[in-house]
What does this fold into?
Amino acid sequence: MTICLDQAMIQRFREDGFLCFDTGLSAPEIATLRATLSTLHTDNVGFKEGALFDAMGVDDGSAPARFPQILHPRSFAPQLIGSPFYRIARGIAEQILGKDVRFKADISLLKPAQIGGPTPWHQDEAFQDPAFDYQEISFWLALQPVDTSNGCMAYVPGSHKGPVLPHGFPGGDSRIHALECIDGFDPLDAVSCPLPAGGCVIHNGKTVHGAGPNASGGDRMAYVLIFDTVPVPAKTERHFPWRAHHKTARAQRELEWRRHGGILVHLWRQRTRVRITNIRTLLFDMRRALRAVRRVVSAG
Ligand SMILES: O=C(O)CCC(=O)C(=O)O
It folds into this structure.
């Protein structure tokens, strides 16, 4: 199945920095995705390598996770990449970003019933290296209906047109994975995006967004696919000082795992991302792989 956005929708996405649409996925297709991801969470898949972590806690196992996430769940359930959702998202990403679009990442997001914490306001680009400029779109798929009672997403329209704003850590605790935007926007401008199961909201890497807690009796699950074009050196110098202070248990587990041989598994998995469209994309991927190896060597 393929879905195309019409020109008015694409224009709205460019203006607002986010857009909701219906994927048209069938109930069994949504149930399959939900069951696949639920099993990974229940089995604690990826914890040792830092793929599974609590984005809203110190993530040392001392308290129930308030926002467990799995980075790259496709590494543990490869069938996710053949899913109809992947094909739909890829087609729309190509429509918006052009033929050179690349699949960047997938993430499984679980906000547990009643204890699921709010997602702080943030811009995804605040996590990235400020030396590059990015073109990125996230596809956030609701795996059950979402509204303000279970933490639907909310966006500040037009915020993607400005710079990356100052960020810090929730409660000032740099052990927490999540980042929080601390200045330069008004949360009262935000628009909530309730969705039916199978509804999707896409956002730009610079759009300020967040979500409320899950106060409902059921888990709130979402599956995210991210597509990008190869980053280019930043046109203007910028600094994200919070990145130097970020010290999470997740990153530490990942480093340990890579030091003990996981680096080879990591590089092998990354091969599916490489798209040799031109020499620039190849060089970018080679440099990134080298950086990953250097980090492991210097930690050892
Ligand atoms: O699901 C959420 O509450 C947050 C997701 C998010 O921040 C993202 O997909 O970029």
User: Anything to note?
Assistant: Residues 7-299 form a domain with the Jelly Rolls fold (CATH 2.60.120.620). The CA atoms of residues 33 and 83 lie 8 Å apart. The mean pLDDT is 94. The longest strand covers residues 102-111.
